[in-house]
């Protein structure tokens, strides 16, 4: 498990270094997460067909990842504390923040509706799809 944690910290460090050196507007840990995902996908694509797919993923990294995901709710506590500490800034800019949240939500809904309309244009309407009693397969 320590080697898996070291892998995660190493990718976070590389992401933070890239963010600092290249002055990217994306947080370093997010860059590190994408680099880790890219490295795992690249390693998976290099596996021959006769090898099992599990050989690309170490059990320790999988176990650590599952443990961190199980504690994900706890990881939002620092973000909540950060919001509370910045309350004067949030209150001073309340109207622009509310307009941005409302506008982005509305825009997201409209784009989703447009994409769904275009994606299902050639399909039968839901009323004409036979009911299988909830059975998917």
TrEMBL record:
Enumerate the UniProt keywords alphabetically.
Cell membrane, Membrane, Transmembrane, Transmembrane helix
Q: Can you list the GO cellular component terms from the UniProt entry?
A: plasma membrane
Q: What is its main location?
A: membrane
Q: Where are the transmembrane segments?
A: 26-42, 63-85, 97-116
Q: Which Pfam families match?
A: LrgA
Location of the protein in the cell: Cell membrane
Keyword Endoplasmic reticulum included in the entry's annotation = no
Please report the name of this protein according to its UniProt entry. LrgA family protein
């Amino acid at each position: 498990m320590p080697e898996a944690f070291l892998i995660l910290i190493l990718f976070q460090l590389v992401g933070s270094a890239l963010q600092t050196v290249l002055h990217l507007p994306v947080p370093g840990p997010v860059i590190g997460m994408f680099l880790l995902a890219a490295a795992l996908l690249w390693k998976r694509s290099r596996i021959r067909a006769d090898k099992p797919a599990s050989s690309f993923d170490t059990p320790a990294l999988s176990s650590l990842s599952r443990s961190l995901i199980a504690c994900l709710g706890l990881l939002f506590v620092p973000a909540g504390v950060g919001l509370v500490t910045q309350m004067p800034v949030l209150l001073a800019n309340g109207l622009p923040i509310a307009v941005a949240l409302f506008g982005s939500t509305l825009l997201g809904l409209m784009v989703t509706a447009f994409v769904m309309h275009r994606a299902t244009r050639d399909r039968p309407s839901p009323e004409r799809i036979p009911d299988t009693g909830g059975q998917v397969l």
